[in-house]
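Below is a filled-in request sheet from our internal design queue. Each sheet records the structural input a requester submitted and the sequence that came back. We keep these sheets so that new team members can see what a complete request looks like end to end.

REQUESTER: design group, bay 2
PRIORITY: normal
MODE: inverse folding
CHAIN LENGTH: 318
BACKBONE (tokenized):
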């Protein structure tokens, strides 16, 4: 597929009609402020804070009119927590993924799924994954990954308002226990709510809140579906972004669990920073306008793939 044809394809859907539910900076910030609040204490896996965040996500899914699967929005599992060196016993806690879907309208393609995911957990008061010398201090995780979770909710809301255009179905997943070793996504692919063969693409958002002045949006895995590199490059440039698109580079977040099951993936982020895994990863450093632009990029990616018969097959990368 050449770039001329890609631009024709990208222009074939009139996004000016999308006016019912917009992605807004105010709503992104509201989600960020809740997720990074003192009472949620760094969103550690298990315990009261975890339950509070899950309750919030379930409420938002329901408000958006995202449909639950047969057992409801929660997919419970047990997570064995990471511990510091020298501690032999790893505690096991109860946590869950929060999952819902929007069904497509095509009689055949509605049985194919695109997954949009982001992990909602973080490091709590630090622990073995912390990069800080500060002990027993809340790690707020504004970029990692309140940003991805807020984006998940806003993109889901906008897609739901345009569901009449969908051919393929969309699954939305807020993963638990990513910081403990991608445990939520591993559990999902081992206990899928739809056959894995019907999942054609998984898009993962992990740290999408710190877009720089050059408007870089990074992604790995674009070569795992047909002409994905050109597709993502052309779409990003059409939105006045600077996409850094890798065919491979399927790095260390929840999309890896899907890639290992031979499912095409896109791992989206806006780059690293010194506040990663420290208490200083706070809301005041989030580029809300940039985050909104990333959300629009991902929204349009999904709509262009889910509302057309774009061929989706898995391509393994070295």
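RETURNED SEQUENCE:
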């Amino acid at each position: 597929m050449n770039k001329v044809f890609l631009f024709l394809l990208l222009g074939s859907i009139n996004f000016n009609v999308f006016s019912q539910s917009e992605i807004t900076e105010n709503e992104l910030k509201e989600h960020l402020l809740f997720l990074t609040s003192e009472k949620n204490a760094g969103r550690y896996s298990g315990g009261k804070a975890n339950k509070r965040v899950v309750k919030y996500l379930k409420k938002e899914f329901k408000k958006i009119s995202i449909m639950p699967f047969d057992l409801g929005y929660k997919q419970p599992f047990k997570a064995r927590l990471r511990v510091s060196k020298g501690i032999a016993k790893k505690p096991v806690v109860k946590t869950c993924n929060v999952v819902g879907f929007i069904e497509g309208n095509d009689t055949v393609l509605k049985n194919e799924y695109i997954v949009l995911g982001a992990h909602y957990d973080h490091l709590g008061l630090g622990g073995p994954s912390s990069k800080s010398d500060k002990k027993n201090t809340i790690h707020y995780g504004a970029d990692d990954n309140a940003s991805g979770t807020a984006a998940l909710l806003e993109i889901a809301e906008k897609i739901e308002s345009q569901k009449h255009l969908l051919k393929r179905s969309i699954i939305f997943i807020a993963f638990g226990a990513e910081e403990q070793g991608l445990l939520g996504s591993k559990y999902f692919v081992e206990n899928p709510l739809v056959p894995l063969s019907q999942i054609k693409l998984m898009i993962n958002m992990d740290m999408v809140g710190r877009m720089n002045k050059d408007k870089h949006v990074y992604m790995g895995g674009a070569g795992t579906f047909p002409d994905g590199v050109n597709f993502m490059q052309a779409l990003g440039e059409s939105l006045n972004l600077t996409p850094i698109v890798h065919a491979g580079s399927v790095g260390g977040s929840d999309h890896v669990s899907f890639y290992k099951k031979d499912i095409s993936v896109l791992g989206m982020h806006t780059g690293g920073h010194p506040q990663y895994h420290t208490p200083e990863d706070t809301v005041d450093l989030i580029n809300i306008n940039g985050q909104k632009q990333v959300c629009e990029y991902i929204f349009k990616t999904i709509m262009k793939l889910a509302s057309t018969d774009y061929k989706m097959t898995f391509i393994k990368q070295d």
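SHEET NOTES:
- Residues 12-19 have pLDDT under 50 and may be disordered.
- The chain has eight helices and eight strands.
FILED BY: M.R.
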